[in-house]
């Protein structure tokens, strides 16, 4: 670690959203960023971080002197650090950005809890040490709007426990992590930021991961959905990663707040998503069937009579089907009022959907890998997006 320089500690920096936040921290600030990296040695942690910097920014230089690998793991007690190392780290951290999480809808509940709930508990424990040893002035916990679970109607930035149930371990454990924040983090400068569905960059379409919304998009593109269980009016709240990463940096440092980084009133709908996806792929629009009717009558026929590739697509998509008939809207008034004066606004999905599809097509839905810097050349304090042509 650099000698007694205070800066930001990041978890989840090797992930999609975390990587975007890390790139911005390095480009827009002069302070060091301590990046928690899983590895079996300090040398391998540094090597892994350098590889990440090269992928994000094109080179580990000139960033490596400020991006400092900290070997640790949120699934281990005290992050797997010795007392000496965590004390040294605590003296250097004035801001924590906790992005590390499992975002899998299919991971088991116990495994999800170990990362999302216990990992958050361990970061609070470290935050308490930072407060005692140094001068922690900001603890940003990146949650999700889907802590709302099955709640029907408007879910506000002030809401948490509204009697909801949950569709999967991801939603449940992110909710439980927020409960931990409220119960254990009262003495810390904690704020909670809740993105909705995070997709690729709105200017280029770039993403290294093709999950959540991309599964249905790919199925639309390949005509794999003759029918889907859905409500056309069901809201689909989607936000591009550049909006979320910009917002995290802009809003950090406001303890006691909760902000929804959601589309809110600009949310799309299942009907619009069907129109956009089918039009972009020149495929027939799938029929929209009430979910109960679909499950009882249509799904068994599709599985029994469809091709093996169609059956695989249906199996992969089933985990997302409940999101096609939601009745939840994520109010974002406080976030909008804080961000709009800074020139940060969430774009509607239709304004960049073609870029998402274009990049997905060029990348063959993840089979062809593009590093961020190949699509988004970066420099100190600036970004010059370079859209890829399909």
Give the full name of the CATH homologous superfamily: NAD(P)-binding Rossmann-like Domain
Q: How many angstroms separate the termini? A: 43 Å
Q: Helix coverage percent of residues?
A: 25-40%
Instruction: Kindly name the structural category.
Output: alpha/beta
* E-strand count: 17
Mean pLDDT: 91
Which fold name corresponds to the CATH topology? Answer: Rossmann fold
Radius of gyration: 21 Å
Strand coverage percent: 15-25%
Write the layout of secondary structure elements.
Blueprint: E1 7-11, H1 16-28, E2 33-37, H2 42-57, E3 67-71, H3 83-90, E4 93-98, H4 109-133, E5 138-142, E6 153-155, H5 169-184, E7 190-195, E8 197-199, H6 214-221, E9 227-229, E10 235-236, E11 238-240, H7 241-251, E12 258-261, E13 268-269, H8 270-281, E14 287-289, H9 291-305, H10 308-317, E15 328-330, H11 333-339, H12 353-362, H13 372-375, E16 378-379, E17 382-383
Parallel strand pairs: 1-2, 1-4, 2-3, 4-5, 5-7, 6-15, 7-12, 8-11, 9-14
Antiparallel strand pairs: 10-13, 16-17
Helix pairs in contact: 1-7, 3-4, 4-5
